[in-house]
From TrEMBL:
Record InterPro entries: CLS_N
Membrane topology: Multi-pass membrane protein
Protein name: PLD nuclease N-terminal domain-containing protein
Localization: Cell membrane
Main location: membrane
Organism of derivation: Streptomyces lateritius
Length: 130
């Protein structure tokens, strides 16, 4: 078990550091560009993640005072409920019209087939009587 842990722990740490580096904004990566940090993490997979956590990322709020939660607050898109969105409601009406047309075609085809079967049965009954 201890042998497996010797391989699993550095691998898990490398994966975590890699994802953390990719999700970090460019202006929060210290000393080197983010691309170089990714290469360091992947190339030196045992010490690279440790170096990233120790020296690669700003752990406190940047000098401008912008935290990730503030960035998300400022870049949030306005969400509209589907029942208030006229484009969504229009697309539903268009889909409904298409579905109704397909249903009418299917019903017409079904009636035609039933008529053909009925005629075949009547012809078979007439031949048996003769």
């Amino acid at each position: 078990m201890l042998r497996a842990l010797m391989y699993i722990l550095p691998l898990a740490l490398t994966i975590y550091a890699f994802i953390d580096c990719l999700n970090t904004p460019e202006d929060e990566a210290k000393h080197l560009p983010k691309v170089v940090w990714v290469i360091i993490i992947l190339l030196f997979w045992i010490v690279g993640p440790i170096v990233w956590f120790a020296a690669g990322k700003m752990r406190k709020s940047p000098a401008g005072g912008r935290t990730p939660s503030e960035w998300h607050r400022n870049h949030r898109t306005e969400w509209v409920a589907p029942d208030d969105n006229p484009d969504f409601l229009k697309s539903l009406k268009d889909e409904n019209k298409k579905d109704e047309a397909v249903l009418k075609d299917w019903e017409a085809d079904l009636r035609r087939r039933e008529e053909e079967l009925r005629k075949q049965r009547e012809q078979g009954d007439d031949e048996q009587k003769s």
